[in-house]
Amino acid sequence: MNNLVRYDLNNDVATLRMDDGKANVMNIAMLAALNEALDRAEKEAKVVVLYGRAGSFSGGFDLGVFKRGGPDVQTMLEEGVRLCVRLVDFPLPVIAACTGHAVALGAILLLSCDLRVGVDVGARFQINEVRLGMVLPRVTVEVCRRKLAPAQMQTATTLGMPFTPASALLAGFVDELVPAYAMQEAVRRHCTDLLALDSKSFAINKRRINAQVIEAMNVAIQADIAQWQALHMGMEAN
Amino acid sequence: MSDTVQVSVEQGVMTVTINRPEAMNAVNRKVAEGIAAAMLELDSNPTIRLAILTGAGGMFCSGMDLKAYIRGESPFIDGRGFGGLCSAPPQKPLIAAVEGFALAGGFELAIACDLIVAGDGARFGTPEVKVGLIAGAGGLLRTPRHIPQRVAMEMALTGEMISAARAYEVGLVNRVVASGGALTAAMTLARVIAANGPLAVAASKKVICESQDWLSHEMFAQQEPLLKAIATSKDALEGATAFAEKRRPNWQGC
């Protein structure tokens, strides 16, 4: 396994620590590492914690891949949005330890988790695609609709506004704010709490609650993939 | 005047900018001297009503320049204290426009000001304890007078930063605006203050600051001379007259 995602299993809790040394960008390697870690967690854990690194949860897709172009772009996009669907549909509770910035796909991944704890100072939350002249994949729109407060939907997505920890809490990016030094303690507390849930009924309940969203996401992902394939083959301008 | 501290005046409002973004606006001798000189000019120039203190490059100030200090440069000015400000704030109002970090000595510069406007990404803190020091330039003395003691205690003992939102919650900061907008917002605030009677504004600041040391049974007596001076000023008459005549006052400053 590579060292982009450190996997630790402790008392039925699988902690996935993302750390690329910088912004935790979602390139093909990172996405593969996350999927591999989730494969393991699904088999042997009862709760999953998706942990960022100091200062950054995830900065989203690797813009370098976009710049370089080629088939990697589509692969990265597909894997990225598939990961969002996977997290929303994951049979175990997923806790996000949002240790810093959550930008673009990074914010979407955060929104795809069940319970999100954020640091109370220094993090920026922003779905900034529109500010980069980029279009939100349809599947990410479904995730936003699911978790963002209606009042903040437009400012967060269409306008791509940045949110502070305090306003992110109100907008629904996170469920709780803690000082950075208290993140581990908060995560531990939630793990203890969620470990008490019956795994089987949890999985069924989560699927029931998310049934419509998953369906919408699967429809959206087909449309996204079709569009990206057409783009890649030069059949569509946008 | 050195470029290290840029000073400009616009419509009676002075802007003092710590200009060492490559060094996170750390306070060395030149910065302290520059601020001291600006404060002297602020208080002695009758055309200047108040000042804004800010930092260049999207951040306020990261505190004392340690490297300079080790070389023997003192950021303490005789009679004025750290940064040429902390021990002897000016008579006229001072607004801190804070973006980014206001840490350690930088935090102390900010709380030496009368008002603080912050960008929403601003962070405030006194991390001195993390390196075995204490915030001796007013960080421990002023903070518990400005915000609730428990919060001041937490800041001092943990050395952890608080966000602009938290700072606003506890009353450390007067206004939080979108990141990048602090200076503009400070200017807007400054203009509102600058439109008011100059003697009255200076006297109000003086009473608020000095009355902290006045005992309850004598505080009105202590205030009396200031009150009398204002009440008998030409500007007081002009203010009342302008109000009655539904026009803007023309302040004379006497």
Question: Could you explain how this protein is built, in words?
Answer:
The complex is a heterodimer of chains A (238) and B (254). Chain A is of the alpha/beta class and 238 residues long. Chain A has a single domain (5-181), classed as 2-enoyl-CoA Hydratase, Chain A, domain 1 (Alpha-Beta Complex), CATH 3.90.226.10. Chain A is built from 9 helices and 12 strands. Chain A has helices at residues 28-44, 63-68, 71-88, 105-111, 138-147, 150-158, 165-171, 183-195, 199-232, and strands at 5-10, 13-18, 25-26, 47-51, 55-58, 60-61, 94-98, 100-103, 115-119, 125-126, 162-163, 176-178. In chain A, strand 1 and strand 2 form a beta hairpin. Chain A is globular. With 254 residues, chain B is α/β, with parallel strands linked by helices. Chain B folds into 2 domains: 5-194, 2-enoyl-CoA Hydratase, Chain A, domain 1 (Alpha-Beta Complex); 198-244, Orthogonal Bundle (Lyase 2-enoyl-coa Hydratase, Chain  A, domain 2). Chain B is 39% helix and 17% strand. Chain B contains 10 helices and 11 strands. Chain B has helices at residues 29-44, 66-70, 105-111, 143-146, 149-158, 164-169, 182-194, 198-210, 219-231, 234-244; strands at 5-10, 13-18, 50-55, 76-77, 81-82, 94-98, 101-103, 115-119, 123-125, 162-163, 175-177. In chain B, strands 1-2-3-6-8-11 form a 6-stranded mixed beta sheet, with helices on both faces. A 3-stranded mixed beta sheet of chain B has the order 7-9-10. In chain B, strand 4 and strand 5 form a beta hairpin. In chain B, helix 8 packs antiparallel against helix 9 (219-231). The radius of gyration of chain B is 19 Å and the shape is globular. Chain B starts with a strand and ends in a 10-residue tail after the last helix. The A-B interface holds A 120-122, 124, 162, 164-167, 179-181 and B 120-121, 123, 158, 160-166, 179.
